[in-house]
Amino acid sequence: MAHVRNLKGLVGIVTGGASGLGRATVERLVRQGASAVILDLPKSEGKTVAESLGEKCAFSPTDVTSEADVKNALELARTKFGRVDVVVNCAGIAVAAKTYNLNKQLPHSLEDFQRVINVNIAGTFNVIRLAAGEMGKNDPDEDGHRGVIVNTASVAAFDGQVGQAAYSASKGGIVGMTLPIARDLAPMGIRVVTIAPGLFATPLLVGLPEKVRNFLAKQVPFPSRLGDPGEYAHLVQSIVENPMLNGEVIRLDGALRMQP
Ligand SMILES: NC(=O)c1ccc[n+]([C@@H]2O[C@H](COP(=O)([O-])OP(=O)(O)OC[C@H]3O[C@@H](n4cnc5c(N)ncnc54)[C@H](O)[C@@H]3O)[C@@H](O)[C@H]2O)c1
């Protein structure tokens, strides 16, 4: 198993790292001896989270759809920690609206649809395209390996529910670009893997009434509960450590298949 890597000493950037799945990933990276830069909105908890994790963590206020913001964040990673080895794209938003609301005689807001597509697809791609250049500067290991990118789709990419047209389309876009980007970046020694989470206990779901949370948890065949963000972070670590994982989408969902 000569080529299995280790998180120790690596440098990661995590979008959406101030909350939920991204935050759990930042915490795991730092706990395992890596350094991490949190890329999240200025109004997020990014600064507090980074301070709580000490010197191995920094916050760069970033909107993932902004070229200037992402370039600043990469610059911070380079000046503070020397390079970038791992990119984890967790920043994402959702809206819930039917394509056409018959009762209100109202079509889905085009603006909302475009905002979700822009943040989830274009934002993810913006970070990948700029970070790839940064990782390309790394000295390759004996496998020719320079870095790894982990994206976050959702099971909604495959079994989207009523009201999820925009969200499912955006996550389907992330699934669809995983293989071509892995192929594009292969000559640089950069891997690309996407995680499609099921239902995880992040601020989004923890805020729901207990009855609703219990109902959702029961939909998961086994283990019949919401996923722990630490379990998502654990998969990120496995992906980083296993060099044969590339160009693939991995469901992390306890066998959940969402109902309409
Ligand atoms: N929680 C779940 O059950 C679940 C399931 C499937 C997929 N996901 C996906 O996982 C990712 C993380 O979800 P979460 O549950 O941790 O959500 P969350 O809301 O807790 O965290 C998302 C973070 O992204 C940040 N963000 C939003 N827009 C941004 C932008 N333009 N630029 C930078 N940062 C931005 C937010 O400030 C927030 O800190 C999302 O892409 C979500 O779609 C979550």
TrEMBL record:
Protein's recorded name: 3-hydroxyacyl-CoA dehydrogenase type-2
PROSITE patterns, A to Z: ADH_SHORT
An annotated GO cellular component: mitochondrion
Family of this protein: Belongs to the short-chain dehydrogenases/reductases (SDR) family.
GO molecular function annotations of the record: (3S)-3-hydroxyacyl-CoA dehydrogenase (NAD+) activity; 3-hydroxy-2-methylbutyryl-CoA dehydrogenase activity; androstan-3-alpha,17-beta-diol dehydrogenase (NAD+) activity; cholate 7-alpha-dehydrogenase (NAD+) activity; estradiol 17-beta-dehydrogenase [NAD(P)+] activity; testosterone dehydrogenase (NAD+) activity
Biological processes per GO annotation: androgen metabolic process; estrogen metabolic process; fatty acid metabolic process
Database matches in SMART domains: PKS_KR
Reaction equation(s) it catalyzes: 5alpha-androstane-3alpha,17beta-diol + NAD(+) = 17beta-hydroxy-5alpha-androstan-3-one + NADH + H(+); cortisone + NAD(+) = 17alpha-hydroxypregn-4-en-3,11,20-trione-21-al + NADH + H(+); (3S)-hydroxyoctanoyl-CoA + NAD(+) = 3-oxooctanoyl-CoA + NADH + H(+); chenodeoxycholate + NAD(+) = 7-oxolithocholate + NADH + H(+)
Keyword terms: Oxidoreductase
Top class in the EC scheme: oxidoreductase
Quaternary structure annotation from Swiss-Prot or TrEMBL: Homotetramer. Component of mitochondrial ribonuclease P, a complex composed of TRMT10C/MRPP1, HSD17B10/MRPP2 and PRORP/MRPP3. Interacts with TRMT10C/MRPP1; forming the MRPP1-MRPP2 subcomplex of the mitochondrial ribonuclease P complex.
Chain segments annotated as coiled-coil in the UniProt record: none
Pathway: Lipid metabolism; bile acid biosynthesis; Amino-acid degradation; L-isoleucine degradation; Steroid metabolism
Keyword Transcription recorded: no
Domain Ketoreductase: 9-198
Entry EC no(s): 1.1.1.159, 1.1.1.178, 1.1.1.239, 1.1.1.35
Gene3D superfamilies reported in the protein's UniProt record: NAD(P)-binding Rossmann-like Domain
Presence of keyword Oxidoreductase: yes
